DNA sequence: GCAGTGATACAA
DNA sequence: TGTATCACTGCG
């Protein structure tokens, strides 16, 4: 029995949402016939404007605008001209928190997830509570996870690049 | 180890 | 207008 997560799940502080999001299921409906499910195995937190690794550290721009809306929206952006990365906005309006989905079951790597889920700029700002093509479900599975530093954030300075903001599911629990 | 790739942000 | 940068991947 799988239940779609409502907006209030994402409105909590990012630290709470992140540890509850590990093991949840991303559902991507491609058309009437095709609907695929992916259990989240790895995520990273970007905790707000003060986080020097976050796009929001540069303030509000056209690209980061959706990070400033309240939780439950999708933030996608194109990186290196090739890959659409999937993020989920959390917290209250103007907190600028977002969680990068770095791995799901069967797909390792944020760029590959974007390819597999056929993401593009039209997903920018998509509402996870009401969308008919992408949402998140809870099937009740509880997962343990391990903490690690984030990847490719060398530019963020000693304090922020070393934060244990990457959550990885324990393989044994899958 | 590093090329490929193009939108974005900011300087000018 | 130009250009430096980039929350990555795949092929050496």
UniProtKB/TrEMBL annotation:
Residues annotated as transmembrane: 66-86
E.C. number(s) listed in UniProt: 3.2.2.-
Similarity remark: Belongs to the DNA glycosylase MPG family.
Molecular functions per Gene Ontology: alkylbase DNA N-glycosylase activity; DNA binding
Species of the source: Labilibaculum manganireducens
An example Gene Ontology biological process: base-excision repair
Stated name of the protein: Putative 3-methyladenine DNA glycosylase
Broad enzyme group: hydrolase
Source taxon at top rank: Bacteria
Keyword annotations: DNA damage, DNA repair, Hydrolase, Membrane, Transmembrane, Transmembrane helix
Family annotation (HAMAP family): 3MGH
Keyword Protein biosynthesis: no
Pfam family of the protein (one): Pur_DNA_glyco
């Amino acid at each position: 029995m799988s239940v779609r997560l409502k907006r209030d799940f994402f409105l909590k502080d990012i630290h709470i949402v992140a540890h509850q999001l590990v093991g949840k299921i991303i559902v991507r409906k491609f058309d009437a016939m095709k609907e695929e499910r992916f259990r989240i195995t790895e995520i990273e937190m970007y905790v707000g404007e003060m986080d020097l690794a976050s796009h929001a550290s540069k303030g509000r721009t056209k690209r980061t605008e959706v990070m400033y809306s309240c939780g439950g929206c999708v933030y996608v952006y194109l990186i290196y001209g090739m890959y659409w990365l999937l993020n989920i906005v959390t917290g209250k309006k103007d907190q600028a928190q977002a969680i990068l989905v770095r791995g799901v079951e069967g797909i390792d790597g944020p760029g590959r997830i974007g390819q597999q889920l056929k993401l593009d700029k039209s997903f920018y700002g998509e509402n996870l509570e009401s969308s008919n093509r992408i949402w998140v479900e809870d099937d009740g599975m509880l997962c343990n996870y391990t903490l690690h530093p984030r990847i490719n954030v060398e530019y963020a300075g000693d304090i922020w690049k070393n934060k244990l903001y990457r959550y990885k599911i324990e393989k044994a629990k899958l």
